[in-house]
Amino acid sequence: MDKIAADQAVLHYGDGEFAVLKPGRFVRCAVTDRPIPLEVLRYWSPSRQQPYFGPAEFIAAQQGEK
């Protein structure tokens, strides 16, 4: 396993909070694949269990389900 993959966290996304299942420094945006440091993670979908880099990515994911 390379160092970057080792730094990627695994989270469980709840309503307004998340739980760390595997410690790490970041998660990857479900839309753009950009790394999101855990300390700035603010957008996710509990029903999809996906993180988003920001509001634009969240909206793009919601529009993609139509």
UniProtKB/TrEMBL annotation:
Highest taxon of source: Bacteria
InterPro entries: DUF2093
Name this protein carries in UniProt: DUF2093 domain-containing protein
UniProt source species: Brevundimonas vesicularis (Pseudomonas vesicularis)
